[in-house]
Amino acid sequence: MAPPLGNPLRRRGEAPAPVGPSRRSLLAGVAALGALGAAGCSRVPTEAGTNGGDLLERLKAAGVVRLGIAGEIPFGYIDKNGDLTGEAPELAKVIFKRLGVDRVQPVPTEFGSLIPGLNSQQFDVVAAGMYVNPERCAQVIFSDPDYQMLDSFIVRKGNPKGLTNYKDVVEKKAKFATGTGYAEIAYAVEAGYPEGDILIVPDQVAGLNAVEAGRVDVFAGTALTTREVVKKSTKAEVTKPFRPLVDGKPHTDGGAFAFRPTETNLRDAFNRELAKLKESGELLRILRPFGFTEDEMTNLTAKELCGG
Q1: How many CB atoms are closer than 10 A to CB 174?
Q2: Which of 1, 33, 55, 196 is the most buried (most CB within 10 A)?
Q3: Entry pTM
Q4: Within 10 Å of residue 293's Cβ, how many Cβ atoms?
Q5: pLDDT (tens digit per residue) in 247-278
Q6: How many CB atoms are closer than 10 A to CB 171?
Q7: Dihedral, CA atoms, 246, 247, 249, 251, nearest 10 degrees?
Q8: pLDDT of residue 113
């Protein structure tokens, strides 16, 4: 069973921003844990200039890797018991254990601070399910994606307007909503929906409420988060996942771990273990408790999402 969604914000790929500037404040307790983590942090020395980086060897010696997280369910967060969890941290625990690093340590921050924090060595790896895009690829290096993500809509039961993609929303003059900073804003605008007519709400919980109350006909979000949030609704349902159009071509987002550009050795070692987990099916087992399904498994590469 997936953990409760709470206020899980749309990851990872906000429309116009290269680093993803708009993110809500961290979940309750995360800031305090961040201070605690900083106080107890075993800082790994800075890069020694080795070709490809020697961070993995230094992490093995220290026995701990610091993970930058953004307090977002289900991607990386501190649960009600004060424990680090989420799809990215749980995957990191498995992969780094295989690489000889026994412990992971959370370093909570705002989403927009993840890349600057990584490059200023506040932590060793971004473990926040960050979407891979060319703008971010100019600042960090990514592992291959551990998941892919399609879009879907929250609509009223029976989908009375027959909305299955952004083109339908435009052609049927549906009242459209999505979340603050969501990539879906750009997808709808590309399809021809006037940006000024989009109702922006805080998250998919607010989106569900807007659909149920009849204030909008449709709320757009990721397939995973919309699927989870409608589970207990008697008035709304989720549509079949679909690929939005970007520059007129079907587009699939993918989330991955980010590393400093100097640390290609660590990124490559991480990728080798990730590939083994994909091949064995263990990756889905690790991600399934957070709402991920076979539909979110992917063979996309970072190179493809970075634009070649």
Answers
A1: 18
A2: 55
A3: 0.79
A4: 14
A5: 999 999 999 999 999 999 999 999 999 999 99
A6: 12
A7: -20
A8: 94
